[in-house]
Design goal:
888 residues, alpha/beta, six-stranded parallel β-sheet
Length: 888
């Protein structure tokens, strides 16, 4: 039992090992933390850097702001300073740290002052802490400085204490992931003395700072917050140490927090408060937004606010998600119970009390149904400067919808006037109810409400006696008016809500259908270009944006495919390259290069990054909603797998082609080695005999050796010529010089070139005297007939005649060479035109199997055909067809 208690927690041990492995690859971050300007953070950082330099560490300054303090400038002068990058903005040159220069210099340690600084517009990253993260990813250690008021989770607390809203903030995750934090402390009295002595700001700025910010009470509070934050960090390190080493202690059950947000102005405060509460409890926390199925949020401003709040929660370390349900309290509590949530944080209602009594309070419902789950209710302080939340209902635009709504009322009134003598006024009410329904369905909520109100007034004025007055002679019509008005409002509200739900469902269905179609189409696609076209088509359809796919080429990427009429420019290509190199989303709507018009997502699989997906919107105000970002991530995952599969298929095809090429090369070597060696041996033997036995040879023997050497040399020349011709045909280097030629001349020239090889054979030529001229390359066609005739000589007996004939078939000139040999088996009739292929026979004739293959290449270059046929009675017919007119 004791051994179990002392055994290290395997989860914590694994987490620590993974963290150590990650830290080994990544640079280490040390933060010099203070509570205000002037406590000595920059000086302490420079002093520590100087000591590291004395220890032999390569130290450079990436960015240090001395504020013209003499002692700080003296410390800076001892270290290497990298040049800053100049950025022009509205005609003013601003300087920032050059991240690329630091990475290229690759020092062991770089100093970067003012971690929370906001970079100049058009910089790679909006914030300096993002530059620091890139340096850490590059394996460079960083020293930096930070004041406590720049932490995002403390933003509203600092504003409440000091009365100053700090605009430059960083996520708490940055300080949480720091390798080391050094607290730089100075008593407030000493800091005020330094401030008054002009050692922090110039006298005019110092006096203003003392009045507005540097009050002793403010400084004391900030100092306490800084010490608490540093103490929390030390406590976290101590707990981690105890857990990984199984040191016994009072371990309490872990807390898990859930904050429920809405488009309310309180949402950001709820997020920050929950973050602080989670830090105090050392608890994991979640941020959720509940979308009611019967009442989806359709206001673009509210949806954008929800997206920003969820993103803020992620930056502060939460897991954010969107839940769907029939009611907020049911969805929240169901998720809380399934995920062991111990505390739920909600905002105090800001609606009037009468609306809570009318519609019910979500907070009360949560508290009533929470059971063992604690519910924390957070309220806004008096005089909060939070922006006013946009109203749920907004009139529909354009104004034409309201005019159409009034038109419906007018049409209903005219119809009612025409039949009011035949029906009771109470029956005419249905005309206005119908117009209200039509308006709600086709025109929207605002016009339908106008139709309801105008309908009641028109009914009273035109259709209830006395006419053309709002006076009512019969009090029963008062009930009719009230019923008409209430029913019209209810119908208008329900119909408009159903219409909005249908629109939201249509949008989700459209994206879901696009994702389904993408998965279905990609299943059967194997070609990389086909895969890219499917991805672009389906994502463009689902998101109504232009799409580009970038594929890697070394460390860069290039545009492989893009939507029609869209071509990414150099800046967008740079965004895609950065996303590929750093394996992070970049561009529009992200923290990296947000000014770009293209949003890039790395396409990542288990084997690495296979490319980058970019989506482009012409409308600069049209950002992706949180749901769209999640859907896009699903698209990106499917696309990455499809691209990887297509790439692997291409690699397999190339490997198969390489294997076939190797087999072909082996066959070529095996075939040619014999055919080259035979004439070479004969030539070498003849020449050797002539050289060594010249005196002993008579004239007849000498002449016989010379003839043998010449014949074998001719044979070798033909073999090499065939190889060269095959190479030219395969490379497409063969050029035709077409001129009208006589087939009979071609046959005669071929027979003449064959010479002794056909001297003992009978050849019968049958070409009509009036045979038309055929456009062809005369020399190449002679070579075709030479190869075919030589093949006929090899594979037919000497006593058999070879027939050469020509005739016309449609618009083709046909030449046939027929022999009386053994013939070609049916299964080999097509294959004999393949390279190096020869019919396998016991009495195999020597040759490389290139003659007919070369002939086929030449004939097809003339847009003709060549094929083999079995001859009746035995033998083979090689048939050549050439067009009588030149075809391009």
């Amino acid at each position: 039992m004791t051994s179990d208690l002392l055994r290290p927690d395997p989860d914590e041990l694994l987490k620590q090992i993974q963290a150590d492995e990650q830290a080994h690859k990544r640079g280490k971050l040390k933060i010099f933390l203070g509570y205000a300007a002037g406590v000595g953070k920059t000086y302490a950082m420079l002093e520590a850097a100087r000591q590291r330099k004395e220890e032999g560490v390569d130290v450079v300054i990436g960015y240090v702001e001395t504020h013209k303090r003499a002692e700080t400038e003296a410390m800076v002068g001892e270290l290497e300073i990298l040049p800053r990058k100049s950025i022009e903005y509205h005609g003013v040159a601003l300087t920032e740290m050059d991240v690329d220069a630091v990475i290229a210099r690759s020092p062991a340690l770089v100093l970067v002052d003012e971690l929370a600084h906001t970079n100049a517009p058009n910089s790679r990253h909006p914030k300096r802490y993002q530059d620091v993260e890139e340096l850490l990813d590059a394996g460079i250690n960083v020293y930096t400085t930070l004041n406590i008021q720049h932490l995002e989770s403390l933003n509203d607390v600092v504003a409440q204490i000091t009365g100053v809203i700090v605009r430059e903030t960083i996520p708490d995750s940055v300080i949480d992931e720091a390798s080391e934090i050094e607290l730089i402390d100075l008593p407030p009295d000493e800091l005020l003395t330094r401030l008054q002595g002009g050692k922090v700001y110039i006298p005019e700025q110092a006096a203003r700072a003392i009045r507005e910010f540097f009050r002793k009470g403010n400084l004391t509070a900030l100092r306490e917050m800084t010490m608490r934050r540093a103490a929390e960090r030390v406590d976290d390190q101590m707990r981690s140490y105890m857990q990984t080493r199984a040191i016994s202690g009072p371990w309490a059950a872990g807390e898990r927090l859930l904050v429920c947000i809405s488009p309310s102005p309180l949402a950001e405060k709820l997020i920050r408060t929950t973050r602080r509460l989670a830090d105090e409890l050392n608890a994991e926390w979640f941020a959720v937004y509940v979308e009611i199925a019967s009442k989806p949020e359709v206001n673009p401003a509210n949806r954008e606010r929800i997206g920003r709040v969820l993103q803020l929660a992620e930056e502060l370390g939460a897991k954010s998600l969107t839940l769907a349900g029939s009611s907020i309290q049911e969805a929240v509590l169901e998720y809380a119970r399934k995920n062991n949530i111990t505390k739920v944080v909600v905002g105090k209602p800001i609606k009037p009390r009468w609306q809570e009594l009318w519609k019910g309070s979500i907070v009360d419902q949560l508290i009533y149904a929470s059971g063992d789950i604690d519910v924390y209710v957070i309220s806004a302080r008096e005089g909060s400067s939070n922006p006013i939340m946009s109203k749920e209902w907004q009139p529909h635009r354009p104004l034409g919808r309201y005019l159409l709504a009034l038109g419906l009322v007018i049409v209903s009134t005219l119809l009612g006037i025409s039949i009011r003598g035949d029906l009771e006024p109470t029956n005419l009410v249905m005309l206005y109810l119908a117009s209200t329904v039509i308006s709600a369905i086709f025109l929207g909520r605002g016009p339908s409400l106008l139709t309801a109100i105008a309908g009641v007034l028109a009914f009273d004025y035109f259709l209830v006696p006395p006419y053309l007055t709002f006076a009512v002679s019969d009090t029963q019509y008062v009930i009719t008016f009230i019923a008409l008005f209430v029913i019209s409002l209810v119908i208008s509200s329900l119909t408009a809500r159903a219409r909005e739900q249908a629109e939201a469902a249509t949008m989700r269905e459209k994206q879901t259908a696009a994702l389904y179609n993408l998965s279905r189409d990609l299943t059967s696609a194997t070609d990389l270009q086909q895969v890219a076209n499917i991805i672009i088509s389906q994502i463009s359809l689902g998101f109504e944006r232009e799409v580009a796919i970038f594929l890697p080429e070394g460390k860069q990427v290039y545009v492989f495919a893009a939507s029609p009429n869209y071509q990414p420019d150099e800046n967008e290509l740079a965004v895609a390259t950065w996303a590929y190199q750093h394996d992070q989303p970049a561009g529009r709507g992200t923290d990296t290069l947000p000014a770009a018009s293209l949003r890039c997502h790395p396409l990542k699989t288990s084997n690495g990054i296979v490319g980058v997906l970019g989506i482009h919107s012409k409308d600069k105000t049209n950002f992706l909603t949180p749901e769209q970002r999640l859907t896009l991530a699903a698209f990106a995952n499917q696309s990455a797998l499809a691209i990887e599969r297509a790439s692997l298929a291409e690699q397999a095809q190339q490997a198969e082609l390489l294997q076939a090429t190797e087999k072909l090369q082996t066959a070529l070597l095996n075939s040619i080695s014999h055919d080259l060696r035979t004439p070479l041996v004969s030539i070498t033997g003849a020449l050797t005999s002539l050289d060594e036995q010249s005196e002993d040879l008579d004239d007849e023997n000498r002449r016989s050796l010379i003839v043998t050497a010449r014949e074998e040399a001719d044979r070798l020349n033909r073999l090499v010529g065939n190889l060269l011709s095959m190479t030219r045909i395969e490379s497409g280097a063969i050029k035709l010089h077409r001129e009208p030629g006589d087939i009979q001349d071609v046959v005669g020239t071929a027979l003449e070139q064959l010479g002794k090889r056909i001297a003992n054979r009978k050849v019968q030529v049958d070409v009509p005297d009036d045979f038309p001229l055929v456009p062809m390359d005369f020399t190449l066609m002679v070579q075709v007939l030479v190869n075919v005739l030589e093949n006929a000589v090899k594979y037919s007996p000497e006593y058999c005649m070879i027939d050469v004939s020509a005739d016309l078939v449609d618009d083709m000139a046909r030449v046939q060479i027929a022999d009386r040999g053994e013939g070609i088996p049916p299964e080999d009739l097509v294959r004999i035109f393949d390279k190096f292929y020869r019919v396998q026979r016991p009495d195999s004739v020597s040759g490389t199997g290139l003659g007919l293959s070369i002939s086929k290449g030449i004939v097809e270059a003339h847009n003709g055909n060549i094929f083999a046929l079995r001859r009746d009675g035995g033998g083979t017919i090689i048939q050549i067809e050439l067009p009588l007119e030149t075809r391009e």
